[in-house]
Design a protein that fits this description.
Chain lengths: 330, 323, 330, 323
């Protein structure tokens, strides 16, 4: 596929943004700066290639629905770092005014229809967004991200069947990181390749190396094209891995998986892979890469300062936004 | 004015609103060839806007929420209350809370119509009334009309509302008749209707029980007992003022609904009165509701559990005997 | 497979019992004798080979969970006609004392764990029964019957995945009669052969002619054997057809399907097919068959009279059986 | 007596019952390696009896019902209340009604443990309290213990009960401490506990709010106000007698719970009092509960919505100002 160097560098930058952003959150948690946030924060470290590879194929007006592990999706789709960080810290300047937190980040201006605290819940929403698109006759698509464990929910099954029957412009992206919290896919999921579940819906199923941003981009772009052309949904399974614990609470203790396993995956790191490619194919020299890395690091630092310095919302916010004003159109 | 069946009044509301606003769609199981509320809509509006769904209540309600967030105005039919638990995750966690969680960025203009209720030998899986569940969930509106006039006017308001609305119909009301205006009209939410004025006792009743209450009121009027019958029509928002004004007048309240008594909507109404109109009460607040028992198939047994006219009369007379 | 003539004749008799039984219910409905029952009665006419073929492979101590269209399953598994009929009429002598009705017929003594008014609900129950069997270490199996449309429920997906992961002794029997009420499989189900959904669970999927009781028996027996041997669940799709409307309310008006379609399927009738085989292969002569038919007819007539003459339950039954007595075991 | 954490008391109850009865199994998401209530059970009882499930709440609760019908006694963990809607179909339509629908042929000895509640920055999807939903459904029992002593004793009773029990724990109670006997004990359902005797006002509180009420009682005692604190402990069956006896004594009632006010369990308790103890009341019945608003993430906002000590004190003082 025709991936320009600029695009590749942009993708590298996004992956870095996510990586540094997530590491920053981890730091803040340890420092106690997330005192209010308790454990309900799930870092995306290791899986950056999936969000970035998929979103690189999307337009601003396209939509995504996300998960509890959604910071990366939001950043990749274009939400400002400042507002994501502030939201995670529960500040007034967060994209949801601090009401959502890590598990409910939305920014409708860039098509982010929300991270979610209910596993699987974003999948039917995406099907419905696809329905709106089809009814409007626009050229948009909606991508739904979800985990391997989410593929065992009834919501997954019902939503994909519906999208398939109605031939909706939706791309289902399963991030198979081998675990749902402490439960291994082998213990909970009856099929080795979740992409095989596509056979139950008569739609294409694709397996892709989720540690390779270019591979993800290519597979996603093809599915997105199919969707735009009215050919219906695709299920893409990205084989990936989270480096850290399930949530910030569980940074170190990971009795359910072996350190060697973690190390093995880290050797396939998506950022490292692209970095090496840059140098080997002379797309970017090491020094330039370091510049980018420094720049991104300071952007993240800035976001962190922005969030830390932002105020908490005023108390009256607590009882706002429950109902939309009734808009009588007669 | 013209006479119309309850179910045809629903059909008219759907039809007129769909004519008015192209973003309205109707979806649900077996609605295309239905001979009830959605009859004929597919012929007029086509298969894009009138959609049969798979048996996937969670999935298609979720899809309706996603569609509602992005410019569509879905009116979903759920065949009966007993299926609401299946899709309640999407109603409760998504539709109801989304706007709030996202700091006001989204709206969810979604109507969920549910022709529920007992008294049709539907047995344990086709007889429920679960409006109390949804009254408990902030972010939803809950509507429960008892007459053709109310059902048409309130359904129009529900469809025009930018929030998720649980719209409780009743199977036993479908074939009841009533007058409605020829012209377009709608009924605002939050206005209870005094179905009959009276001064001795207030009966607050919903859905099919409004008919029973009115019939009781007529019976009792022959005995010189003047009953006021109030139909809240919408449970969220609830018109407390009309209810409390009536309590001020009569000092005596009987609340009647078909759903189970324990933690039913009558509990909430009674609690409001006991909290906000205590000084005007001169007798205990009575609730007449279904016994807290599943619904059996056999009709004689079902009849034992559902509230009926005799139960209401007994409650009214007990109140009048006091003092 | 070794199907003795006796067994074949027994299967014929069972199919007839169901056919006549269901036709009787249809008649009673038209006569108004089911006045109380309204429309919530769904006849199995046309699909008899499925229930009978499957249950012929089961033992008395095996279990089944059933559907809204469950009279046939109950009869095939051995519930007495009298008690099924009385239950459908809401009489005290029904197997559930009239409290269940057509959609909630259970008879635990013969392993019938209930017909059901919630489409799909019996499938997870069956998985759980399989779990009990596995924990007990007995040799039983549990069969779950459900329709084509039920395969679009989340319950189907979650329950089969769980049964597969835990390798439970369950056989999932999908009765694909092409419609869910008025909605065609094409309009609601994204895959042509529901058996293909097995691929999403790593279990065997089998397609069988549901109008051929012998074929059903053979496929089911193999799956049952697998289950008993601890090899886990199987999904069997039986291609079948209901001759009548979705419920007794909808006997004639069937705008959603063509009369020719109905006629075509009737030509494949399961009872006719076995009857012809009997005569052609000299298993049974026409006269003997007529005797059986007469005998079954009178058995059904008897059941109908029994049910009609039985009393309704006493009012006090209405408030019994809500909670089981608490059995403190200390 | 020994001191124990709430969560360890749960663990002890599970462990002792599993030792006693081999048919008891424990299942849920991430329970095997849990460091909370199910800690270490897999080591003692093995993988057959301690089962991690897929994220399939409807499926595995349904499976638990099927298992319970056929000789197994499952104790299921649902991670928080917000997930109950996902599996409510199997709880409501199957577990609760099955015995009745089948004319008493089956029993469903199933416990569903739910460590729910707000106040932990769980935001819109991890903060709910839905006990009112299940109190509305006949066929279920509903238990909501507030102390280590109660949670152990009631969990044992729940496990030994032959009916489906919704067992509501609270995340904020997990790290609280209390005394329990060294020996085996259990607490019968349907017995409210008077956590503190008093004579001026009755506070009826559940779950974490019992702690708040007790703290309020102590504060107010310094001002010479004598508060009685009642913890119903089980909502179904409900010990009306203890509640009504207290009302007879004090004439004034404040009901406190963390769940939303509208159609919460406080509504039912208020309605019962207004119906059955009206003559003993000498002031309105107050309810102190969560505002009818979804739970926001930001802690300062969350604090605005949850009932707290000040709210309770205010309600008590308002009642005392009357007359
Ligand atoms: C419906 C539901 N069940 C359980 C949970 C608790 N929970 C949160 S994340 C999680 C695991 C999700 O695993 P997966 O979908 O693979 O995503 P991952 O965390 O691996 O990215 C669970 C069980 C939940 N939030 N929602
Ligand atoms: C969960 C649920 N949704 C909807 C209904 C209403 N309903 C009853 S039967 C039925 C169709 C079932 O079709 P299928 O599973 O194919 O079985 P069939 O009737 O064809 O035997 C529907 C939609 C229901 N009872 N339960
Ligand atoms: Mg995972
Ligand atoms: Mg079918």
């Amino acid at each position: 596929m025709n991936l320009s160097n600029e695009k590749l560098i942009e993708m590298y930058r996004k992956m870095l943004e996510i990586r540094y952003f997530e590491e920053k959150i981890g730091e803040l948690f340890v420092l106690g700066a997330l005192a209010y946030a308790r454990g309900f924060i799930h870092l995306y470290v290791g899986e950056e290639a999936v969000a970035v590879g998929v979103c690189a194929g999307l337009r601003k007006e396209d939509y995504i629905t996300s998960t509890h592990r959604g910071h990366g999706h939001c950043i990749a789709k274009g939400v400002q770092l400042n507002n994501v960080m502030a939201e995670i810290l529960g500040k007034q300047t967060g994209c949801c005014k601090g009401k959502g937190g890590s598990m409910h980040i939305a920014d409708v201006n860039v098509g982010v229809l929300g991270t979610s605290g209910i596993v699987g819940a974003g999948i039917p929403l995406a099907t419905g967004v696809g329905l709106s698109i089809k009814l409007k006759g626009s050229e948009q698509v909606c991508v739904s991200f979800f985990g391997d464990a989410a593929s065992n929910t009834g919501a997954f099954h019902e939503a994909i069947n519906l999208a398939a029957v109605w031939k909706l412009p939706v791309v289902f992206i399963c991030e198979n990181n081998l675990y749902g919290i402490t439960v291994s896919a082998a213990e909970s999921t009856s099929v080795k390749d979740i992409a095989d579940r596509s056979k139950g819906y008569g739609i294409p199923g694709v397996i892709v190396d989720g540690m390779d941003v270019i591979a993800v981009y290519e597979a996603a772009s093809e599915a997105i094209k199919r969707a735009r052309e009215g050919l219906g949904p695709t299920l893409i399974e990205c084989k990936t891995y989270r480096y850290r614990g399930h949530s910030v609470m569980e940074q170190w203790a990971q009795a359910y998986r072996k350190p060697e396993e973690v190390e093995e995956w880290k050797r396939k790191d998506c950022i490292l892979k692209l970095r090496t490619k840059f140098i080997q194919t002379n797309i970017l020299e090491e020094e330039k890469i370091c510049d980018i890395e420094k720049e991104v690091k300071s952007r993240v630092e800035e976001a962190s300062n922005f969030a830390l310095q932002s105020p908490y919302p005023e108390n009256e916010e607590a009882i706002k936004d429950i109902y939309a004003e009734v808009e009588m159109s007669f | 004015m013209k006479e119309i069946l309850y179910r045809d009044a629903i059909n008219e509301a759907l039809r007129e609103e769909m004519q008015r606003d192209k973003s309205i769609i109707v979806m649900g199981e077996d609605i295309k060839w239905s001979i009830w509320a959605t009859k004929g809509l597919v012929d007029e509006f086509g298969e894009d806007r009138v959609r049969n769904t798979p048996i996937s209540e969670l999935g298609f309600v979720g899809a309706a929420v996603g569609a509602a967030m992005t410019g569509t105005r879905p009116v979903v039919e759920i065949m009966f209350d007993d299926l609401l638990p299946i899709c309640s995750e999407q109603i409760v966690n998504q539709a109801a809370r989304m706007r709030y969680m996202f700091g006001g960025q989204t709206k969810v203009p979604l109507v969920i119509r549910v022709p529920g209720g007992a008294g049709v030998s539907g047995a344990g899986h086709h007889s429920e009334s679960l409006e109390a569940w949804f009254m408990h969930i902030p972010g939803l509106k809950v509507v429960i009309p008892s007459t053709p006039y109310d059902v048409k006017g309130l359904l129009k308001t529900a469809i025009r509302d930018d929030n998720p609305v649980i719209f409780k119909e009743h199977k036993r009301l479908y074939s009841t008749k009533g007058e409605i205006p020829e012209d377009d009209y709608s009924i605002p939410f939050g206005q209870a209707d005094i179905k009959k004025e009276g001064k001795d006792v207030t009966i607050i009743a919903t859905s099919y029980m409004v008919l029973e209450a009115l019939s009781v009121a007529e019976t009792l009027s022959k005995e010189g007992i003047s009953v006021e019958v109030i139909d809240p029509r919408t449970l969220v928002p609830l018109d407390k003022k009309t209810i409390i004004d009536s309590v001020k007048k009569t000092g005596k309240v009987v609340i009647v609904h078909e759903a189970c008594k324990r933690c039913g909507i009558g509990a909430e109404i009674a609690a409001i009165i006991a909290e906000e109109a205590f000084d005007y009460l001169d007798a205990p607040i009575k609730r007449v509701a279904r016994l807290d028992v599943p619904i059996p198939f056999s009709r004689p047994l079902e009849n034992c559990l559902l509230p009926n006219k005799e139960d209401i009369i007994k409650a009214v007379k007990e109140l009048l005997a006091i003092r």
